Amino acid sequence: MRHIAVIGSGPAGYYSAEALQKSFGENVRVDIIDRLPVPYGLIRFGVAPDHQSIKAVAKRYEKVALGNEVRFVGNVAVGRDISIAELAALYDAVILATGAPDDRPLDIPGSDLPGVVGSAAFVGWYNGHPDFAGLAPPLTGPGAAIVGNGNVALDVARILAKTRAEFTGSDIVGHALDMLEQSRIQEIHLLGRRGPHQIAMTPKELGELGYLEDAAPCVDPSDFPPEADDALLEPGMRKSVAHLRGFAAAPGAKPKTIAFDFFAAPVAIEGDGRVERILVERTRLTDDLRSVGTGENYVIDCGLVVSCIGYRTPPIEGVPYEHGRGRFANESGVIGDGLYCVGWARPCS
Ligand SMILES: Cc1cc2nc3c(=O)[nH]c(=O)nc-3n(C[C@H](O)[C@H](O)[C@H](O)COP(=O)(O)OP(=O)(O)OC[C@H]3O[C@@H](n4cnc5c(N)ncnc54)[C@H](O)[C@@H]3O)c2cc1C
After folding, report:
1. 3 state DSSP class of 73
2. Is 152 a pocket residue for ligand 1 (Cβ < 6 Å)?
3. Run of H or E residues at 211
4. Do 280 and 266 contact (CB within 8 A), yes or no?
5. Which of 187, 190, 277, 288 shows the greatest Cβ crowding within 10 Å of its Cβ?
6. Residue 349: pLDDT band with limits 50, 70, 90
7. How confident is the model over 51-80, as pLDDT tens digits?
């Protein structure tokens, strides 16, 4: 009989347990250990509450969990309640599936002001993560700035823009829904250092912005490269850019706007004891598609800044760690003898 400890109960943890079930059948026992009292990681606490079809993947994990070989052990933080050395003595192998729960810091002056929130906290707040239930983000408006040009930024923009009725059928928590209904935010800015061809947004999520009850996306037509260049994009990106071109060609007139501020790098956040504005430098692309500042700045008045610029895996005592890259030191997922990492705890770059 093999005894395996899987640390983390998100997708990577459950897919690991499923693979172990398939490989060893009755001859394996897997303990999935999580610091939280409930399983499924970011499927529960990250994926947007109005995207129930994506959250439905948890049914597959439930099937794994119901197998006799697999046990969920909640409320145990590895590194705090039990050490890696203790686990190594108890199990044949330890698999770290702890994800990347820490926001990459928004390293600009003023980023410590109240009203600047990392996406992990903001997303956790509306998804019922116990660490962020008391976040109470300032939704006093009229402006909000979201830093980042990926799907997490899109999720945050959409959640800020939706009406209460549009959350019907979602599993958004009541405290967030009540606060969002009272929100006075009307101008939501999505800041990206590069242009429409460099976004990391998928077509389905972008397309949704065109169908919001009270909010319309807004894109400056002059931000696009020549239309012929779209043919060089891979098909998914081409569809995403087509959505953006559609938004630029037919700007909607609704009470709220979701403005795509392309070629825009945040340089400082200012305010008297809280966020009141964000200073942004216009950028341009170099030949190798890096963004560089132009020296031209503008200001967005806002009471809330949400940074959606990526995540990091925090270290665990006893596990070799690359501080520069913010990840466990590993070679193809192998950290050491009997110690492995998977999923977001094992980023490829
Ligand atoms: C806002 C947001 C929206 C997303 N939306 C989508 C989407 O729509 N579609 C999609 O396909 N993907 C989406 N993703 C990505 C998806 O959530 C991740 O790819 C996936 O959850 C990563 O799985 P994981 O198991 O590696 O990590 P996680 O899901 O983060 O799971 C890690 C688990 O480890 C636990 N843990 C951490 N440290 C410890 C410790 N020391 N001891 C014990 N337990 C610990 C955590 O509590 C957590 O349960 C989204 C991500 C975010 C952040």
Report:
1. strand
2. yes
3. none
4. yes
5. 190
6. low
7. 999 999 999 999 999 999 999 999 999 999
Residue with tokens 């912005």: 209
Q: Nearest 10 degrees: CA dihedral of 278, 282, 286, 289? A: 50
CB-based contacts of 142, cutoff 8 Å, min separation 6: 184, 185, 186, 187, 301
What's phi and psi for 310, nearest 5 deg? 110, 170
Among candidate residues 4, 20, 111, the one with its CA nearest the CA of residue 64:
20
Nearest-CA residue for ligand 1 atom 16 is 42
Q: How do residues 66-116 score in pLDDT, each as one tens digit?
A: 999 999 999 999 999 999 999 999 999 999 999 999 999 999 999 999 999
Q: What's the pLDDT tens digit per position in 230-286?
A: 999 999 999 999 999 999 999 889 999 999 999 999 999 999 999 999 999 999 999
With a 6 Å cutoff on the Cβ, whether 316 touches ligand 1 is yes
Pocket test for ligand 1, best of 31, 35, 42, 60 (most atoms within 8 A of CB): 42
Dist. CA 139–CA 159, nearest whole Å = 12
- 109: cis peptide before it, omega within 30°? no
Q: Which two tokens stand for residue 164?
A: 């209460």
| Gap between the Cα atoms of 139 and 142, Å rounded | 8
- What's the Cα-to-Cα distance from 36 to each of 17, 135, 279, 318, 347, rounded to whole Å? 18, 18, 38, 21, 22
Distance CA 245, CA 247 (A): 5
Name the closest-CA residue to atom 38, ligand 1. 98
Strand partners, 285: 291
pLDDT bucket at 324, cuts 50 / 70 / 90: confident
